Amino acid sequence: MNRYDLIVVGAGGAGMMASIVASRRGKKVLLLEKLPKLGSKLKATGGGKCNVTNTLSIDEFINAFGREGRFMMSALREFDNKALIKFLESIGVQTHSLDGFRVFPTTHNSATILDALIAEIQNLNIDVINGCKVKNLKIIDSKIVGVECADREFLSDNVALATGGLGYPMLGTTGDGFEMASRAGHKIVTPYPAMLPLHTKEQWVKSCRADTVAKVTMKINLPKFKKLKAVGDLIFTKNGIRGPVVLDFAREITPLLEKFKEVPILVNLTKGLNEDAILKHIKEYPKLSILETLTKILPKSVVIALCNELNIDINSQYKNIVGIKRQELLKTLSWTPLTIVGHDGFKMAMITRGGVSLKEIDPNTMMSKKVQGLYFCGEVANIDGPCGGYNLQWAFSSGYLLGSNI
After folding, report:
1. Half-sphere exposure of 404 (CA within 13 A, CB side)
2. How confident is the model at residue 169 (pLDDT cuts 50, 70, 90)?
3. What is the pLDDT of residues 294-316, one digit of tens each?
4. Which residues of 314-351 are buried (b: 16+ CB within 10 A; e: fewer)?
5. For the chain, does the N or the C end have fewer beta carbons within 10 angstroms?
6. How far is it, in rounded angstroms, from Cα 388 to Cα 106?
7. 198 near 47, Cβ under 8 Å?
8. Coil, strand or helix: which one is 149?
9. Coil, strand, or helix at residue 231?
């Protein structure tokens, strides 16, 4: 009774997809989840709206992941965004893309997708055990033979770790898969929190919390890292910055914080305008105060905060500002300096950077190159992407590929 064709450890998007696909192909599947309910993190994804994928081509999608992206080619060819949308329709979930890029369930409610996945799991008679934490993998002669839980064991020649990373530990992602993979001989690329808000040394940001700044460009101001940049909307907070551009760029900054303690960045808040373009804009309104002029390209709160930092009277006309102050103003408006000094760690990280080394996973099957019958899918592998449906698509694609190859 305890023997299965496949045991899946972790019931997030990747684990549920792997279970469904393997079961549809006639395999006897056991899905183990340590939390009381399935899909807790999936339900919280995108603030509960569940940006499930996007409309990019496979090549564009892969490029967004950087150098690790090529690893996904087989999974995406097997199960791309169009296949995912078709699969969701097959289980009763309609999707749409209002902005032509991000794809959501039409309900904009992640529970719609989670409920449909659970219903399909029940329809397929997949064995599910909630509240069951796997303690160890059973391995004999470099072959998987099953798993051990607290008070029982289950046997299988195929075990999939779909345990996620370390982000949002209250939703079950506490690094269990990393520990089990490491004990099985796998290298774990050092995990860092990604996709989370950042803290700044500068205090003026707290006075700008009411405004979102669109199309911000952000780059790191350190030797050897100046080529790293991101573009997107930015939101100021009481102790730093957040918003899509910050969530995307955090993965580059968190490892550097551990090394340097402080990471200087430069932020263009003026939709890409350089000093010359900003000066040209100012000269178009010679009779207006600097506040009136700059609020045409920046939120008022940001103009006031930056002028206060530079000791510039916001009611002055540009021509009446001392020469050196003019240069400081133009330079600051073009590239506003900020110093990243911290973050809230994995408890606020939507995604984990790092994980099981991709060099030790077969990209065509998702099986370990070290232990026969041991598989990985989703965030437990060393792949993480930006905001916009990238990470969920990878979870479903890798789960599909895994389930297809049992």
Report:
1. 16
2. confident
3. 999 999 999 999 999 999 999 99
4. beebbeebeeebbebbbebbbbbebebbbbeebeebbb
5. N
6. 16
7. no
8. strand
9. strand
For 282, the token pair is 């100012």
Helix extents (H) in 7-68? 13-24, 40-44, 58-63
Largest CA distance in the chain: 85
Alpha-helical (H) ranges within 184-274 are 244-260
DSSP-derived secondary structure for 302-370: HHHHHHHHTT--TTSBGGGS-HHHHHHHHHHHHSEEEEEEE--GGGG-SEEEEEE-GGGB-TTT-BBSS
Residue 406's closest CA among 16, 26, 32? 26
Buried b (16+ CB within 10 A) or exposed e, 63-88: eebeeebebbebbbebbbbebbbebb
95-96: strand order across its sheet = 53-54, 102-105, 95-96
Buried b (16+ CB within 10 A) or exposed e, 157-195: bbbbbbbbbbbbeebbbbbbbbebbeebebebbebbbbb
The kind and range of the H/E element at 120 are helix 110-123
Rg (CA), the chain: 24
| 170 pLDDT higher than 90 | no
List the domain boundaries for the chain: 3-192+352-404, 198-342
Fold assignment, 3-192+352-404: FAD/NAD(P)-binding domain (3.50.50)
pTM of the predicted model, to two decimals?
0.94
In sequence order, the 6+-apart residues with CB closer than 8 A to the CB of 124 are 20, 23, 24, 29
Judge whether 202 and 305 are in contact, CB under 8 Å: no
Closest CA to 336 of 290, 273, 283: 273
**Tens digits of per-residue pLDDT, 5-42?**
999 999 999 999 999 999 999 999 999 999 999 999 89
125 CB burial (10 A radius; 0-12, 13-18, 19+) = exposed
**Which two three-digit tokens encode residue 330?**
């133009």
d(CA 163, CA 168): 12
